[in-house]
Amino acid sequence: MMKWGLSSGTPADSYYEVRSDCTDDVPKSKFKIKAGKTLSARKWQAAFSPDGCLDIASVLRRIQTGGVHPTVRGEVWEFLLGCFDPRSTFDEREEIRQIRRLQYARMKEDCREMDSHVGSGKVITAPLITEDGRPIKDPLVLLEATDKNTSEGAPATRRNEIEVDESAERITDKQIIEWKLTLHQIGLDVLRTDRTMVFYENKENLSKLWDILAVYAWIDKDVGYCQGMSDLCSPMIVLLNDEADAFWCFEKLMRRLRGNFKCTDQSVGVANQLQHLASIIQVLDPKLHDHLETLGGGDYLFAFRMFMVLFRREVSFGDSLYLWEMMWALEYDPDIFFAACEEAGAVHKNKVSRSKLRGLRHFGKWDKDKDKENAKNGSEDGEDGPVPISVFMVASVLKEKREKLLQEARGLDDLIRILNDVNGNLDAKKACAGALKLHKKYLKKVQAKKP
Fold first, then answer.
1. What is the DSSP letter of 265?
2. Mean pLDDT lowest for which of 220-224, 277-281, 385-389, 406-410?
3. Which residues form the Rab-GAP TBC domain (predicted)?
4. Cα angle, residue 312 at apex, residues 204 and 195 outer, rounded to 5°
């Protein structure tokens, strides 16, 4: 649960209660709420016009200075992720919200018709179906949301204990089979996600997380469900009370990150970001890059997890939320709402007028710098778009560990050990500032090399 009314200087994690038996196991927050810098509830409300249009420029400045106060974080994220357009009114947003809630209810009902456990309050942690579509009789681990043992994890299912239900009708639709095969993996991951938080002692919250991930796995069949998604979805459940609202925030986040989860036998989904990281380190620190290559880390796969779950392991829960909103504010594009609507062919895309926001002040600082550079060089982004700030954040982590890597790392094991020291110890604000500095330095070096 979240605590309200804490004063300036309070660590961000004070709003996200940790179980008493886990206080020694969780990273300590380094980010503190600061009056005059953090976007407070008062400043947030003052940013709206009487009819509800949001002064996004003032909001972005405040977030980039001191993050978002936990009491309004969920509302702010809906704008940062593109759920709502800042030019919309209160009435327009409410209409869109209701349309989306109905849409989610229909998608969830479609999933429930394929598997009755969706929406039942249960978390599935054992296979429900065989790979050839035969339902499994009485799955061994079928945990009710009210089961007090749910949060403690579930015993592994032994193959010889699985009994096929011969009387049940065999499923032949390959997409349904593939989806149902993922449901128990979602359940196992849900039980491991943020398990130190008091919030997830409420089993309804666990089942809500499972339901959202199950529905998403069905609607995005190209990606489905992959490990790591539960870490990305969990904050949405914590911040937004309504399950449908949490789903749409997660869906908007996945629009940015789904490529990370599209893996083949030849490449990993984050391959582009790893290549960008390699190029950046090679330009900014050739000596470190050569050393990493010598160690066998020239593919930069050691940074895989940082990209997949956006630094959830490197910082505390509260600090990870601060880190995310800082990145989103820096990269903010005022037309993100319409881009998402057009991609989805959404029925509500015409509910607000599309009057173009003029001036770079409506963009995040990252986009301002990018646009200035493009204007100077007369160039556009590549087909993959601009390099995301997360790549430069990983670069800043490597820079911070540079001396230790050069002096102590004699193999991949040493490299991983040194970087694992970052887990729970990363300063989110310092990492963002470091990323911005490295970005400017990188642009200057690249520009200097041009004829």
1. S
2. 385-389
3. 67-331
4. 35
Query: What's the mean per-residue pLDDT of the chain?
Result: 83
Rounded Cα–Cα distance for residues 208 and 245 (Å)? 12
Predicted model pTM? 0.85
| Residue 397 to residue 165: CA distance in whole angstroms | 52
Query: How many secondary structure helices (H) and strands (E) does the chain include?
Result: 18, 4
- Do residues 288 and 298 touch, judged by C-beta distance below 8 A? no
Averaged pLDDT for residues 248-272:
85
Taking 3-state DSSP, the helix, strand and coil percentages for the chain, each rounded to the nearest 5, stand at 55, 5, 40
pLDDT band at 32; cut points 50, 70, 90: confident
Do residues 143 and 123 make contact, with C-beta atoms less than 8 angstroms apart? yes
Residue 11 bridge partners (DSSP): 32
Whether residue 229 has pLDDT greater than 70: yes
222 burial class (0-12, 13-18, 19+ CB within 10 angstroms)?
exposed
C-alpha span between 127 and 139 (Å, rounded):
7
